[in-house]
Amino acid sequence: MSVRAPELDPLLQDFLRHLQVERRLSPRTVDAYQRQLNELAHGLWPERPSAWPQLAAAQLRQAIAGAHRGGLAPKSLAQRLSAVRSLYRFLRRRGVVDGANPAAGLKPPKGERRLPGVLDTDTITRLLEIPDDEPLATRDRAILELFYSSGLRLSELAALSWIDVDLSEGSVRVLGKGSKTRIVPVGSKAIAALQALRNQDLHGDPQQPLFRSRGGRLGVRAIQLRLRHWARKQGLWQRVHPHLLRHSFASHMLESSGDLRAVQELLGHADIATTQVYTHLDFQHLAQVYDGAHPRAKRKGPGPRE
C-alpha cells in the first residue's frame, strides 16, 4: 500500500494557492475547499495517489451517492461538487485537462430548506439598549448597532478600520466575499454608537482597527463571545450570533420596503436567489393585509352570494 497525503497533492496545492493568492478567498473558505477535496480523494483513491485529471463523471456520481448514503448532508455534498467544478475549471486553464468537467450537470440531493432565524424588533431593541457606558460596553454597543444597522457579515465587521467609516456621510466601506467592495449606509443609532467609540479612542489613527482588544484587532471569535455575553446579560433566551443580526436586518428591511434588489445590494449577495431566502414574511400578517386591502378577499364567512 502506497502512502498518500492529500495535503501534498501538487495539483491540489496549486489550486489552493490560486484560491488564496489570485482569487483572494478567505482562509476559512480555502480550508473548506481543501477539506472537501481531501475527503473526496480519500474515498476515490484510498490506497494510491490522487488522479484528478482521470476522474470521470460516473465515478464522481458514485462517490457523491456513497457519501450521501453515509450521512453527509446535502449542503456538504453541494459544497463538494462546487469544489470539484472549481478545481476542474482551474485545471482546464492550466492545460492539465481538456475534457468535460466531471461535476458538470451533477446535482446534490435536495435537503430540507431551513429558514434563517430572526429576532423581532422588540427583541432587537432590548438587545441593543445596553445601559452601561464603560469603555468595553461602548465598544460592544457599537458592534451590535453596526451589525444590525448595516447587515454586515462577521468577517466584514472584524476587518474594518476607522478609515473605512465615514460618520459624517453615514456610510461604511466593506470588503466582502470575492474581495468585492461595497458602500453601505449606517443608521443614526449606529453612527451615535460609533461616535461614542471614536470619542474614547485615544489613537486617532485612521488605519487603526475599528474594534480592538488589548492585543490589537478584535477577532471573530471574540466578537461572537461578546454578542453571546450581551444576549445573556439583556435576558434573551435565544442564541444570539452575528448572522442572526444579519438575518434580522435583511428580513426587517424587506418587510418595510419589499425591495429585494436593494436588500441584495446591501447584503453583498452576488445572486439574488441567495437574498430570496429572506422573503419568508409571516403568512398571518400577509393574510391580514390581504384581507384588509383586496376588495374580493374577505374570506372569513361565506358572505352574501353575488
Write a short abstract of this structure.
With 306 residues, the chain is mainly α.
3D architecture notes:
- The chain is mostly helical and 306 residues long.
- The chain has two domains: 6-93, Orthogonal Bundle (DNA polymerase, domain 1); 121-283, Intergrase catalytic core (hpI Integrase, Chain A, Orthogonal Bundle).
- The chain contains 13 helices and five strands.
- The strands form two sheets. A three-stranded antiparallel sheet has the order 1-2-3, with no helix packed on it. Strands 4-5 form a two-stranded antiparallel ribbon.
- β1 and β2 form a beta hairpin.
- α2 crosses α4 (74-93), α6 (135-150) runs antiparallel to α8 (188-200) and α6 packs across α10.
- The model is unreliable at 1-6, 281-286 and 299-306 (pLDDT under 50).
Report the helical percentage.
40-55%
Under CATH, the homologous superfamily of the largest domain reads: Intergrase catalytic core
Number of domains: 2
Beta strand %: 5-15%
| Largest sheet properties | 3 strands, antiparallel
The spatial strand order of the largest sheet comes to 1-2-3
CATH architecture of the largest domain: Orthogonal Bundle
Mean pLDDT rating: 81
Query: Distance between termini?
Result: 83 Å
Radius of gyration: 24 Å
How many helices does DSSP assign? 13
Order of secondary-structure elements: HHHHHHHEEEHEEHHHHH
**Overall geometric form:** globular
The CATH top-level class label of the largest domain: Mainly Alpha
Report the structural category. Answer: mainly alpha
Q: Number of DSSP strands?
A: 5
Q: Return the CATH topology of the largest domain.
A: hpI Integrase, Chain A
Q: Which regions have little confidence, pLDDT < 50, spanning 5+ residues? A: 1-6, 281-286, 299-306
